Amino acid sequence: MALKMVKGSIDRMFDKNLQDLVRGIRNHKEDEAKYISQCIDEIKQELKQDNIAVKANAVCKLTYLQMLGYDISWAAFNIIEVMSASKFTFKRIGYLAASQCFHEGTDVIMLTTNQIRKDLSSPNQYDTGVALTGLSCFVTPDLARDLANDIMTLMSHTKPYIRKKAVLIMYKVFLKYPESLRPAFPRLKEKLEDPDPGVQSAAVNVICELARRNPKNYLSLAPLFFKLMTSSTNNWVLIKIIKLFGALTPLEPRLGKKLIEPLTNLIHSTSAMSLLYECVNTVIPILKSPVLARNNTVFLYVEKLYFVFFPPTVKYLGLLAMSKILKTHPKSVQSHKDLILQCLDDKDESIRLRALDLLYGMVSKKNLMEIVKKLMIHVDKAEGTTYRDELLTKIIDICSQSNYQYITNFEWYISILVELTRLEGTRHGHLIAAQMLDVAIRVKAIRKFAVSQMAMLLDNAHLIASNTQRNGICEVLYAAAWICGEFSDHLEESNQTLEAMLRPKVTTLPGHIQAVYVQNMVKLYASILQQKEQAGEKEAAQEITQLMIDRLPQFVQSADLEVQERASCILQLIKYIQKLQIKEVPVAEEVIALFAGELNPVAPKAQKKVPVPEGLDLDAWINEPPSDSESEDEKPRTIFHDEEQRHSRHRQPEIDEEELARRREVRKQEQANNPFYIKSSPSPQKQYQDTPGVEHIPVVQIDLSVPLKVPGMPMSDQYVKLEEERRHKQKLEKDKKKKKQKKEKKGKHRRHNSLHTESDEDIAPAQHVDIITEEMPENALPSDEDDKDPNDPYKALDIDLDKPLADSEKLPVQRHRNAENLKSPDTEAPLVGKKSKKPKKKEKKHKEKEREKEKKKEREKKVTEEGKKVVCVLSATYDIQGNLQNDSQVTVSVIFENKSTSFLKSMELNVLDSLNAKMLRPEGSSVHDGIPVPFQLPPGISNEAQFVFTLQSIVMAQKLKGTLSFIVKNDNGSTHEKLDFKLHFSCASYLITTPCYSDAFAKLLESGDLHMSSIKVDGISISFQHLLAKICFYHHFSVVERVDSCASMYSRSIQGHHVCLLVKKGENSVSVDGKCNDSTLLSNLLDEMKETLSKC
Amino acid sequence: MPHPRCGPEDTPEQAWPDFPEELPDLPPSPGREKPPWWDVPEAGPMNQMQFMLLFSRQGKLRLQKWYVPLSDKEKKKITRELVQTVLARKPKMCSFLEWRDLKIVYKRYASLYFCCAIEDQDNELITLEIIHRYVELLDKYFGSVCELDIIFNFEKAYFILDEFLLGGEVQETSKKNVLKAIEQADLLQEEAETPRSVLEEIGLT
After folding, report:
1. A366 Cβ under 8 Å from any chain B Cβ
2. Which residue of A has its CA nearest to B196?
3. Residues A64, A21 contacting (CB under 8 angstroms)
4. What span, in angstroms and rounded, lies between the C-alpha atoms of A480 and A451?
5. Partners of residue A1060 on adjacent β-strands
6. Do A793 and B42 touch (CB under 8 A)?
7. A112 and chain B: CB distance < 8 Å anywhere?
8. A422 exposed, middle or buried (CB, 10 Å; 0-12, 13-18, 19+)?
9. pLDDT of residue A507
């Protein structure tokens, strides 16, 4: 034994330590890989020894090799051995190695749980510290669950050194094991007021990070943080707090006002750039206080930013901050337009890209042309295709943003696009092509111009397609060919264009473009044919046919299947046409009919946005699956039975022809009234000529003989000039009008009259512009859910923290040190505080039950907004249905309708439970929790949500008070709103219409254990029939028997009470005798009925 | 507050020994089998910092600390790409760049680049300050730190970083406290080491 030890230690003296290894590697530059593999072999030997010092040395060397890129995962177990060494020296190395190479997939990690726990409770604070540090790097959900309680205890350790580490690592634990957040939060909050500044700042850090992800749960902490912000002098902490307020202010507008003063002080007093930057960055954009705007403070910030940050290394940040300010204070940034344009010349690409981003947000109708012109200059100057491509996409983005909102002259835009085709070697040909198509399809007034430009492109196709380097750009020919074909009516020199399309050179283009060529030359051909026939030029018509027949074979020989197929098909067609032409049969009408009709744009997500109609279950069988049983005789019966059931169930979605026709009519009506729709006319193409405004289009003479590269001034520049003139004219006219107005309104001096600024709205577009909104199916829901990432790791931390802790919410505490924690995590997973699961399953049942309109109440929330306009935001209608399956539950269906123009979200319904009636809440939530409404409401949309209530006794009517809280989100930000309401559960809502036969009814009356009561109502004028219908509808009864002016009725409560009525009509009165198992229920029911009847 | 020896003004050739050769251990440049966005790191749990890398002007990695769990392969790929991108930049360019969906903040001290990745919303300037603070700490601890100090005592450099940052968050804002903690831990280490002479271990005492 002693000998072995001696041997081990002597070996150790000759072992390489880390320094030797590093030196060795540097001395073996030529054969480093070989040297290292030698070292790894040595390390493997060392790891086999018992001496922990040798092992630690080996692990240390491995850690170094890991950094060089070598895989050391094979040594994971040895690392754990070193971690569990008792000496701090080794433990430290072990944990370092673990933190560098362990990750969630490391399987041996679960072996460390107990070792880490032991270290955490070590009397030596550095042992604990090193364990916490290591854990922060490789904490897994299992480790988090098992160690959460230990770490939480450490948050109250006597040493601040441990406390601050424990506090920080708690954030990692929360992320991995969200259930720990609620139990640990009170202690975390305590740490905000820890005497040690380090611990305090750690707590601020953690809470700020939590709050930034789910701000609404942390609103209640705002006062505390406000205090901290005004008292703290630590910039690191201040930055965090300001970040936190940045997340909170959108939810609580009042905070903004409070923050202005301390923030302004900070901005003026601080010398720390990072703090100043943070202030501007996070808080300013969301503060939309009029105070700020008036003081021009924001403007000041921008100035300060620009001049402070001017050194090139941080210029970038100035631009970044500006882009944030831009969203709320565009004016203050727009004045720096020239500076920003200068940045496009910067040699640093990140600055140039930032500046481009900024320009994107700065454009308005007024400056679009100017900015794009500058960008076009940069496109010409730009070196390197990547940046030039970036410029190109930005130009297109800028112009096409928000549905071409800023373009006043589409001719200009088309010429910009055409100019962009001169770019050599761009990858974005398809982008330009897509824009050309989009504009030509959606802006009808521009088609004529677009077609002429496209014809020119086709004519000069050799310039675009000749160069192999320009491959990307030839995509524009795709668009050009399609536009010329589809809108061939507008083509002036059709023959020439057709010939251009038939050139042999075309066959060198990519297949998909050729295919479009082939298809569209037929369209073109058809329209030429029609022209010629109408003009009676038979010769010319035959000539053009002959031309097609001569040239088409070159496409028939194409290697591309699509081209070949289309070409041969069309060739045959044209040969047939030729035959007819020879017989002097007019064919043009028939040929043109091939391409009749118009293509309408449809939004890409249209299909997805059609809501599933109510009652339609997409997963349900349409036909019952063939049953396994072979018995033939039973089958017909079941099918028949099922069919009947299904019929009654799915009646709603089935819409008959009439209904369809009616809806279509309604939609047409809507479209006709919608200024963005212009396709209500039967043949819009022909009507186009009459469209007002077309005459005013300044048609530029295009000399087709000149090549694309126009020497001197580019085409688009002419538009800039034209536009300026036009605007000037408009302005003059407007001034004239204003003067007139002034004369009329003499004496009335209005402030805005003297303000002589040309706002965006003043600029009228050059053409009559119709952007056809993309077609959306009826009832399409604007879904913003599309973009939500279900895997967001922070979602799990969206937990209400103000709610008192339930008993079940405790961190799991490991009591025995045994093999248990090696079990699979699922068996141990504690059931705590699961909040987000929705109890929707239960309600499904109810749908199958009879539903009856019970009671309608409408409440409208009136919110006073700025300007003291009374705006109706939300209305809710509800009805209550009893539940047959469960004798103590009713379902309340609430239809929410958004009547405002804002977006409503985060709706939460809460009801103050009474002793008797309680809202059914998800497991684990307390009585103070609301139930989230499972949808959001875009403006004008309504939707239905169901809530289940449990009732003890149903013999009395109930009223429950409740609140609906929701967030109103519009352009100005979002505000919290509340709507108070009362739910009225009448006794009738507990009744379920149940048919009853007269003999059963008679037996029931005879049984004698029913209580009796009666009412009489005078002054009834409606017919008896009508009256019975009312009772049936409002009170859920069914008629058992009716004899003259006397009727017996029956109903049953959800708890099985029988209710029998005898209704008799006199001259002007009605008497109702009732019998029921429960006298209270009966008298309440009769009271309700009395109220209904007295209204008749 | 320019750093005494680590200021960027130093000519690296004089202050630091050179290691001219390329990294041999990293696999050859990536194939085109995956689109570039394939393994973009997900938004990490800690927003403050995703990772910190130290590398030399020659592209040799000197220190790496990851605050997001990533596989070794991804780490290597990110490191390689980033080192190339940063080294390609000219000296007067700004210290920030957008890379994938992260923001990279880097600063060069003599021949060493200190490079951090942060998320979109984070404060670049405070990250720059963190880098500077770390350099100051290294300098205080080693006494005029140079690249060789970090190479030969890389574990110490990690220990210092771990006392300064935890999980990507600043743990201790006071330089004094960080150094005190490191000194005491070192003391503990030395105490543990001193009695263990070779002879003692052989059992000859």
Report:
1. no
2. A53
3. yes
4. 8
5. A1050, A1075
6. yes
7. no
8. middle
9. 83
The number of beta carbons lying within 10 Å of the beta carbon of residue B178 is: 24
Whether A202 and B171 lie within 8 Å, measured CB to CB: yes
Q: Where are the alpha helices (DSSP H) in A710-760?
A: 715-744, 751-754
Instruction: Record the pTM.
Output: 0.54
Q: Tell which residue, A522, A411, A431, has the closest CA to residue A479.
A: A431
Rounded to the nearest 5°, which phi and psi values hold at A974? -130, 150
The predicted structure's pLDDT at residue B117? 93
Nearest to A716 by CA among A298, A415, A1018, A276: A415
Q: Minimal Cα–Cα distance from B115 to chain A, Å?
A: 15
Instruction: Name the residue with higher pLDDT: A483 or A286.
Output: A483
Nearest to A69 among B76, B126, B184 (CB): B76
Enumerate the β-bridge partners of residue A1014.
A1073
DSSP category for residue B26: S
Of the spans A312-316, A500-504, A620-624, which averages the highest pLDDT? Answer: A500-504
Has residue A829 got a pLDDT over 50?
no
Cα separation, A320 vs A302, in Å, equals 11
Q: How far is C-alpha A783 from the chain's CA centre?
A: 7
CB-nearest partner of A126 from B94, B158, B184: B184
Cβ atoms of A333 and A303 closer than 8 Å: no
In A, which residues are within 8 Å of B129 by CB distance?
274
* C-beta atoms surrounding A725 within 10 Å: 11
Cα–Cα separations (whole angstroms), residue A511 to A269, A457, A517: 67, 19, 10
Q: In this predicted structure, what is the pLDDT of residue A846?
A: 40
Calpha distance B3→A216 (Å, rounded): 43
Nearest of A185, A245, A20, A149 to residue A812 by alpha carbon: A149
Name the phi and psi angles at A1060, rounded to 5.
-115, 140
pLDDT in tens, B22-80: 322 222 333 333 333 322 233 333 456 889 999 999 888 999 998 887 788 888 899 99
Q: Is A19 on the interface with B (CB under 8 A)?
A: yes
Q: How confident is the model over A322-327, as a mean pLDDT? A: 73
How far is B141 from chain A, CA to nearest CA, in Å? 18
Tokens of A524: 């073109």
Predicted confidence at residue B138, as pLDDT, reads 92
- B203 in reach of chain A (CB within 8 A): yes
pLDDT confidence tier of residue B10, bands split at 50, 70 and 90: very low
Q: Which two tokens stand for residue A358?
A: 């900024």
By C-alpha distance, which of A69, A73, A62, A152 is closest to A109?
A: A73
Shortest CA distance from A13: residue in chain B: B198
**Has residue A677 got a pLDDT over 70?**
no
A622 touches chain B (CB under 8 A): no
Token pair 């009508």: residue: A1026
A104 inside 8 A of chain B by CB: yes
The β-bridge relationship of strands A931-932 and A903-911 is: antiparallel
**How high is the ipTM of this complex?**
0.76
Asked if residue A773 has pLDDT above 90, the reply is no
Task: Give the gap in angstroms from C-alpha A67 to the nearest C-alpha of chain B.
Answer: 7
Q: pLDDT value at position A370?
A: 84
CA pair distance A283, B175, nearest whole angstrom: 29
For tokens 């750690």, name the residue: A202
The two structure tokens encoding residue A327: 């969203």
Tell me if chain B has a CB within 8 Å of the CB of A68.
yes
Q: What length does chain A have? A: 1096
- Tell me, what's the pLDDT at B204? 46
* Per-position b or e across A644-680, b if 16+ CB within 10 A of its CB: eeeeeeeeeeeeeeeeeeeeeeeeeeeeeeeeebbee
B46 contacts A171? CB cut-off 8 A: yes
Q: Inter-chain contact A69–B170, Cβ cutoff 8 Å?
A: no
